[in-house]
Design brief:
The chain is mainly alpha-helical and 213 residues long. Helix content is 81%, strand content 0%. Helix 1 packs parallel to helix 8 (151-184), helix 2 packs across helix 8 and helix 3 (37-60) packs parallel to helix 6. It has helices spanning 3-19, 23-34, 37-60, 64-68, 70-98, 113-128, 131-140, 151-184, 186-210. It has one domain. It has 9 helices and no strands. It is found in: Cell membrane.
Length: 213
Amino acid sequence: MTIAQALLSFSVVAALLTVIPGLDTALVLRAAVSRGRGHAIAAALGIGAGCLAWGVAAAVGASALLVASETAYRVLTLAGAAYLVALGAQLLWTSFRRQGDDDRLPAVDSPDRGSLWVSWLTGLGTNILNPKIGVFYVATIPQFIPDGMSPLLMGILLAVVHNVIGMLWFAFVIAGAGFMVRTLGRSRFARVADRVTGIVLVGFGLRLALQHR
């Protein structure tokens, strides 16, 4: 397998994983609708940073601990589950509390730098605390390393490819959200997005906590 063949094959797998509706898409969509394009981009960049961190960890073998140690995997799983449930519950609470008080919705692309950092950290935390991302990289990266190629270098390259595909998908999601906001109105769509995202986060967190490895 050549480097070009490895990158192309991995791109197909990564693209399929990216476009399947999940936490990352829900978070970016919610940020785009409720907070504006700037916050959606910040969340997407945080998600990308988390994926890149897992990719590098898998390339150097650090995240192999998740495969070898049941305790380490369980601890990270419970931490991630608690984070997701708390985040989802907060979104649900905010959406119902905000109903009928639409004037408090933040302006689109509000230049609140602190909030942008929060959006970035939310995306980062969602990926860092999801052990399935690490397991995905551990399971797939070794299959796409050509003979004679540095595992670290190839792992980083594959993670970057995954990030590029993810950013392209998120750009499509953000553009679509902008269209829906202009069509349906941002206040109503924002509440719906918050509730859907909250339910997805709580459900995924509970499933993560209750599942067996």
